[in-house]
Amino acid sequence: MNETFYDKIFKPKTYTLSNGKEVKKRASRTPLILLVVLILTVVSWEVTGVDLSVIPARGNQFIVILFDMFPPNLNFLGNIWGPLFDTIQMSLLGSITGALLAIPFALLSSSNIISNSLLNGFFKLALSILRTLPTLVSALIATFIFGLGTMAGTVAIFLFTLSYIGKLMYEHIESVDMGAFEAHESMGLSKVEAFRYAIIPDILPTYLSVSLYAFEGNIRYAAILGYVGAGGVGLLLDERLGWRDYPSVGMVLLILMLVVFVIERISEYFRMKLT
Amino acid sequence: MNKSVQLQLEKAPNRKLYLTTIGVILTALLVWSILGVNITGFSQRGLDIASNIVRGILTPDLEFLFDFTSGGGVPYLLFETIAIAFLGTIFGSFLAIPISFLMSPSVVSRPVAFITRLVVIFIRTIPSLVYGLMFIRVTGPGPYAGVLTMSLTSIGMISRLYVDVIENLDRGILEAMTSMGCTTYEKIRYGIMPQLFSNFLSVTIYRYDMNLRDATILGLVGAGGIGAPLIFAMRAYRWNEVGSILIGLVILILAVEIFSNKLRGKLVNG
Amino acid sequence: MIEFKDVNKTYPNGVTALKNINLTIDQGEFVAIIGLSGAGKSTLIRCINRMHDINEGTLMVNGVDVGKLRGKQVRSFRRKIGMIFQSFNLVTRTSVINNVLISTVPDLAWWRKGLGLFPQEKKVDALEALDKVGILDKAYNRVDQLSGGQQQRVALARTIAQHPDIILADEPVASLDPVTAKVVMDDFKKINKETNMSILINIHHVELALEYADRVIGIRQGEIVYDGKSEEVSQEVLNQIYGSVENIPKADDPEEADI
């Protein structure tokens, strides 16, 4: 048992058995962890100014908006289709291009495919950094570079998809069993041929399934990108919430829910088939 | 060729039609979306801004980045973001416990589980920014609204993952405890709770990682955190400030991700 | 002492599991119960601690009429009977010692139960139980880090810490490899000799049964067809229990619990 710093402060407890044997039990870490969590909670509570008494006093305001959304304004339906299609198109284009570019990124990141640790490290770091940026933040930046509109949203989704699929794929590729690859090389196939027949069949189902999953999530993200001016139904939500036109907001949310639901079912169906 | 070989050869599944159909549909969707998205190249102005952002990241506002004393520096803003995500995750994970039990077909009857599931899907589909705006009506603008939003939006995913834990509980221990003469309470306390605890904790840490990312954007609607200063700095073209915020954000999220992966690895593997 | 008197057991789906069982097992015996899958071995064992109810006859365990026990009485009766399972049935996500301590939970004060605070003497007792099965050094490891054989020994230590008069073991070595199976069987033998606990084992491996048990009970279609010393089990006896030579299970034959 190697002693850590913690064990030096809080001495292990010793139990003596009736036959003379001694057993040492390290002091439990649980009290320390609980203390840390407690302190963090108290500090966070102070910093964020949480005041539970507000909820019973003013919580009805939340419900008021919720009830205002019903019944949804059906007449608003006509205004939704355009932005809705924009949202779907943004996420489709961003997802497809992101998924395609993720392939070279993932291959360049995988140490068992490209044995150059400098190159691997660079691409892995690039994917990690890209992944840290929330979609809305990259959309915000994109609106400054590409101007307001669907292009900015597409770029944001593209970047997120690239980093998400890229990371999952290089993790998968690095864990692929290279045995089949060796076997194919031993049969006289070239490296590229061996890759085609040994590695691709292994990673393709995962790639497709991850891509579909990313697309599912992207529809949700795309729906809010309009907030920063990056096109789609988010613009409508922003505008109608600003005008406190809650029945129309309700209608947008209803349609959004339906679209997300349908797309998730379709994507789930195909993902089930892949696994 | 041998007859049975011939027969078997003809039996090979013909997926050409299926694959072509999918290919055609995908291409059609791609074309449709290319036509739909208003593809703009880089305008001169856009290029200028892009290079400004890069320059801002390379030469960040160091005073702003390392301002530990006042309430307006990057460290404090990140700290506020961490706090919002932390409290939001804690509230959300506690609220998710009863909901996840109501969602588990092995705990409640199927109709109840189905209805709860629908409600959770409903909660999940509303974008967090909409909740943010709704909560601002309750609490006024600020981090408190952010905490409430985080709590509500994390419920959906946390409870779904909790359900998986509940459904995969090892029931063997219950049989063993019955044979020892344990009561139902003892079985729950010593047979089920230890199994739930570490798994629930692992889910919660995972969700914290995601909530931190989400908390950064809540500032965009005025619900606290580092999002609002970012948008102000950009609108005012203060690129060095933008650079400082982005650097702080990336470092924080990377650090938390590494830390949470380590922690969860420890929880799962002991 | 365990006494079956004209015991019959029929499952609600109409399957007869036990027919006219008459059996007496004295304190301190090491008994192996052998037979085909579905012959009623598991049912027989599980009636003893009321995991299953019997339909007819009486079953006395240490002077207690098992069939007449109700609610709380069943639980306190079970405290004196330990049970070991094929699938170990441990909480894998917690430490070895916490698993052993579970067997002492019903004896704790209510506030200790809630907080999970075990008294010092229970902890030492649990450690001694682990020492008896030779895995004292693993006391603070998590169960999922142990091998199958070690996990079954944790389960055995858990039962020892319960200080029962009788240990019932339902296929304890069926999911272990032959070498580990012997180690676990050695532990059973040692406990039987040292503490005079009665041990009843359902077992699929005939060789192990004959090697370790003092007494063998053969069951076929719910009836006892052989009851005698293990040295006296001959090929004819096995044919009688298993029907024919082909049915005698091999050591690697996977085994299912009854019904």
Short description:
The complex is a heterotrimer of chains A (275), B (270) and C (259). With 270 residues, chain B is an all-alpha fold.
Task: Give a verbal description of the structure.
- The complex is a heterotrimer of chains A (275), B (270) and C (259).
- Chain A has 275 residues and is an all-alpha fold.
- Helices cover 75% and strands 3% of the residues of chain A.
- Chain A folds into two domains: 46 residues; 204 residues, MetI-like (MetI-like fold).
- Chain A has a two-stranded antiparallel ribbon with strand order 1-2.
- In chain A, α11 runs antiparallel to α12.
- The model of chain A has no long low-confidence stretch (mean pLDDT 86).
- Chain B has a single domain, classed as MetI-like fold (Orthogonal Bundle).
- The longest helix of chain B is centred in the C-terminal third of the chain and has 35 residues.
- Chain B is extended and about 70 Å long.
- The model of chain B has no long low-confidence stretch (mean pLDDT 86).
- Chain C is of the alpha/beta class.
- Chain C has a domain of 122 residues: 3-Layer(aba) Sandwich (Rossmann fold), CATH 3.40.50.
- Chains in contact: A-B, A-C, B-C.
- The interface between A and C is small, with 9 and 9 residues.
List the helices and strands and how they pair.
The complex is a heterotrimer of chains A (275), B (270) and C (259).
Chain A: H1 5-9, E1 13-16, E2 22-25, H2 30-48, H3 54-58, H4 60-68, H5 77-109, H6 117-132, H7 135-146, H8 150-174, H9 179-186, H10 191-225, H11 233-242, H12 246-274
Antiparallel strand pairs in A: 1-2
Helix pairs in contact in A: 5-6, 5-8, 5-10, 5-11, 6-8, 7-8, 8-10, 9-10, 10-11, 10-12, 11-12
Chain B: H1 3-11, H2 16-36, H3 44-58, H4 62-65, H5 74-103, H6 110-125, H7 128-139, H8 143-167, H9 172-180, H10 184-218, H11 227-235, H12 239-269
Chain C: E1 2-10, E2 16-25, E3 30-35, H1 41-48, E4 56-61, E5 64-65, H2 72-78, E6 81-84, H3 96-101, H4 110-115, H5 120-132, H6 148-161, E7 166-170, H7 178-195, E8 198-202, H8 206-212, E9 215-220, E10 223-229, H9 235-242
Parallel strand pairs in C: 3-8, 3-9, 6-7, 7-8
Antiparallel strand pairs in C: 1-2, 1-4, 4-5, 9-10
Largest interface: A-B, 59 and 62 residues
If you compute it from the alpha carbons, what radius of gyration of chain A comes out, rounded to the nearest whole angstrom? 27 Å
Under CATH, the homologous superfamily of the largest domain in chain A reads: MetI-like
Helix content class of chain B: over 70%
DSSP strand count of chain B: 0
**So what's the oligomer here?**
heterotrimer
Based on secondary structure, the structural category of chain B is mainly alpha
Chain-averaged pLDDT of chain A: 86
